[in-house]
Design brief:
Elements (H helix, E strand, L loop, with lengths): L8 H10 L6 H7 L5 H15 L4 E3 L2 E3 L7 E9 L5 E5 L12 E3 L18 E8 L8 E10 L5 E8 L2 E6 L7 E3 L11 E7 L8 E11 L6 H8 L8 H9 L9 E2 L6 E4 L8 E7 L9 E8 L1 H4 L5 H9 L3 E2 L4 E2 L4 H7 L7 E11 L5 E12 L2 E4 H8 L11 H22 L10 E4 L5 E5 L5 H23 L6 E3 L5 H12 L12 H11 L5 H11 L4 E3 L23 H14 L8 H4 L2 H31 L6 E10 L2 E6 L4 E6 L8 E4 L4 E4 L4 E4 L3 E10 L4 E6 L4 E2 L32
Helix pairs in contact: 4-17, 10-11, 11-15, 12-14, 13-14
């Protein structure tokens, strides 16, 4: 490296690869001693590398594709021949190939570092370094924190067979495990158990011994417990945490403004038990803002009760967020806090952190201020209740509220919607299905809740409050955790672009914005391939994560965004509350300096915990639906192709919100070619095939309730496909590809 000389492409790529912690544009310019025009040249060179797919952005850091970010969550999976611990990233995009191995550094006896000692099976937050020893793993890592210690064990449901038994898998790709009579322990038929696998020979089922009995899953009511234990979700509060919650008392008026006369109201689902946000609006009386509005959003003051490094705080961070199953909620905070002291109950004094926002008649925000207040909710309404009142059918409760409270809120929303329409966030049409359970825990029905203006009103007001939090903390130069959503990677853009070409739809090159994707969605609106295009656009998106470095929110089309409005159920919001309290001098419960130093680690942890919760929620729904359909083997259903791979087709049943798999080996007698560009399987001889989004008729061939797996036989005839290009061995073996594994899962969907 020569100081003051702009690097070549090759030198720059090697620097980015070897220095993941120094790979921002500013750090690179500083390392090479570049100034003035040289920095502009560097910027152009980096842009060229990014356009060519040689580097990609991760937050503000530039990385080689398939590289690891400076701080990563790792799973320690094995020891090498030298006894060193080897880990792999907990989350990895398969499009980048095989997840890289990471060597865990040992702490020297002379080292003053207090790094925790990790072991096999642990999940850790680690600082990543490039391994200079080219003969070993690509990276080394220093453990910053141990998230979860796990034994080298497996989970499954025990089924008795004579004196011994078998472990039935709870994962779609799992295999049965045999348990000898001497290793059954206290397990009974139908128990969810943890087993330790034993060494086996080359033939026969793997063997294991039962090490602990978690509980019975004979009832559907216990299905969510499978996901809770499989993902290691903490669900029992320690006694010391419960005592701390029970000892908490009502907040006083110290450092608070008295807003109890302001008629704030809560609008939530009808079955909500906690209420963490309240709203109010009025026309702006200022002559300088004709036609403008004032909107107040008040959020439960959780930071007053959950102080940094307390028992409540440590347990909340361990959970990261609340997890919502159809039959239960695993809360982030004990009920004494979440459902009582911090719940904005009707006609009860409650502490809150409020933001007062002023908007012009065009929907542009003119200003905002934050206040620590004491409030008293004037009413608790459901979405349906508030909407019915606006639509001309008020009840006894909403009637008196219609003119003074509800109509001003809807008028304010109309103005905020002007700003939203101008901003053009990504508008995907992907209806979310809900499961309604019977009293015995079995599925009653699956339905799509109606999307009301009342939902949109609350959503937009919460988004604006979140923006205000991020802007205020940036202005105060206060470290925080952002909610960031990067633009789609170049590789995913190109995959989508190739797919859209087959529909005669074009996607622009270069820097894209959310409105580029909205244009595509509008072109597909009302067409037979509408659902298919929505699905492909969704798959092209990056996943939203938490980060102390701002990179904006692509989906919402916002320059800065932070989660502020749900501190009862999200740890990120609690951090933002503390940051606001500290930076604005609002009293006790602010962010402490030692916390600020840990924000990068905290952001990595809670991002991982969020994905853990999403996976657990999705798998529980799949198991419930598989239970629901297990007695209907042989019945026929209308479905839609929701995924295409060279191994077969994923088929979704819209009426049930279920996904199943059709192995390619069961699709007729033709040899099927996977066409990635068209997202299709096409018969080599007939030219007939199936494409993403196609409606199909299927027969349920197999259901594995514990794993949530469904297998279908396809009954529909394929349709004529566009010209397909063979993707592998055009000559040679011509047999159909067998389905070797139970159907897998589709990629998880991101959250805003």
């Amino acid at each position: 490296m020569i100081q003051g000389v702009a690097p070549t492409r090759e030198v720059l790529l090697e620097f980015i690869q070897d220095n993941p912690d120094l790979a921002t544009k500013r750090d690179i310019a500083k390392a090479f001693g570049l100034k003035g025009e040289q920095r502009i040249e560097l910027k152009e060179l980096l842009r060229s590398l990014e356009d060519d797919g040689m580097v990609e952005k991760n937050r503000k850091t530039l990385m080689r594709p398939g590289s690891l970010p400076p701080v990563t969550v790792l799973d320690i999976t094995l020891r090498d021949s030298s006894g060193e611990l080897i880990a792999r990233p907990a989350e990895w995009d398969d499009e980048n190939g095989v997840a890289p191995a990471v060597l865990i550094r040992r702490s020297s006896e002379r080292s003053k570092s207090k790094a925790p000692v990790a072991g096999l099976g642990d999940r850790v937050v680690a600082k990543i370094f490039v391994n200079k020893d080219r003969g070993g793993p690509a990276y080394t890592a220093r453990v910053v924190k141990i998230i979860d210690k796990r034994k080298n064990a497996a989970l499954g449901v025990f089924r008795s067979q004579g004196a011994g038994g078998r472990i039935m898998p709870i994962e779609k790709r799992g295999m049965e495990i045999e348990v000898d009579p001497s290793f059954v322990g206290d397990a009974r038929d139908g128990d969810l158990v943890e087993v330790e696998t034993l060494k086996i020979g080359r033939f026969g089922l793997q063997r294991a011994k039962v090490v602990s009995v978690i509980g019975s899953v004979a009832s559907e009511k216990a299905i969510s417990m499978i996901a809770i234990h499989a993902h290691g979700i903490p669900h029992i509060f320690p006694d010391v945490v419960l005592r701390e919650a029970d000892e908490a008392g009502p907040a006083d008026m110290k450092d608070r403004d008295d807003w109890r006369q302001l008629p704030l109201i809560t609008i939530d689902p009808a079955d909500a038990k906690d209420h963490d946000d309240a709203v109010w609006a009025e026309p702006d009386p200022s002559p300088d803002n004709p036609g403008g509005v004032i909107v107040v959003v008040a959020i439960a003051d959780v930071s007053y009760y959950v102080r940094s490094f307390s028992g409540l705080d440590r347990e909340a961070l361990k959970r990261g967020n609340s997890v919502y199953f159809p039959d239960r909620v695993v809360p982030m905070l004990p009920e004494r806090i979440s459902n009582d002291l911090c719940s904005l109950k009707e006609n009860v004094d409650r502490p809150a952190l409020a933001v007062r926002m002023v908007f012009s008649k065009e929907g542009r925000k003119a200003g905002h201020t934050f206040h620590r207040i004491m409030m008293r909710s004037a009413a608790k309404l459901s979405y349906q209740q508030a909407q019915a009142a606006i639509d001309g059918a008020p009840d006894d409760k909403t009637g008196p509220l219609l003119e003074p409270i509800l109509k001003p809120l809807w008028d304010a929303y109309a103005i905020l919607k002007n700003g939203r329409d101008r901003r053009q966030p990504l508008e995907l049409d992907m209806p979310e299905r809900k499961i309604l359970l019977k009293p015995d825990g079995t599925v009653d029905r699956v339905y799509v809740p109606e999307r009301l203006d009342a939902h949109k009103l609350i959503e937009e007001m919460m988004i604006q409050a979140n923006v205000c939090a991020a802007e205020t903390l940036e202005t105060k130069k206060q470290p925080l955790i952002y909610r960031v959503h990067d633009q789609p990677s170049l590789a995913k853009q190109e995959t989508l672009r190739q797919f859209l070409v087959t529909l005669d739809i074009t996607l622009a090159h270069g820097a894209l914005r959310s409105n580029n994707f909205n244009t595509i969605l509008q072109k597909a609106d009302g067409k037979p391939y509408q659902a298919m295009v929505n699905e492909m656009v969704l798959r092209s998106q990056s996943q939203a994560v938490y980060s102390p470095a701002n990179m904006g929110h692509f989906g919402l089309n916002l320059l800065r965004y932070a989660h502020f409005t749900s501190p009862i159920r999200r740890y990120a919001d609690l951090i933002v509350h503390r940051a606001l309290v500290a930076s604005l001098g609002l009293g006790a419960g602010g962010l402490r300096p030692e916390e600020e130093e840990q924000l990068e680690d905290i952001a990595a942890e809670i991002s991982t915990f969020e994905r853990r919760a999403m996976a657990a929620e999705r798998e529980t729904i799949e198991r419930l639906i598989a239970h629901h359909l297990a007695g209907r083997i042989g019945e026929e259903f209308d479905g839609r192709i929701s995924g295409v791979t060279k191994s077969g087709l994923f088929v979704s049943l819209p009426a049930y919100g279920a996904d199943g798999f059709v192995p390619v080996s069961t699709i007729g007698r033709d040899y099927y070619i996977y066409d990635e560009a068209h997202q299709a399987l096409t018969g080599d001889k007939s030219g007939l095939g199936f494409r993403l989004g196609d409606p199909v008729r299927v027969r349920l061939a197999e259901a594995v309730p514990l794993a949530g797996a469904l297998r279908f036989d396809i009954l529909s005839e394929g349709r004529k496909m566009p010209t397909a290009t063979r993707s592998f061995h055009k000559s040679g073996k011509r047999g159909r590809e067998p389905a070797r594994k139970t159907p897998g899962t589709r990629p998880p969907r991101g959250r805003r």
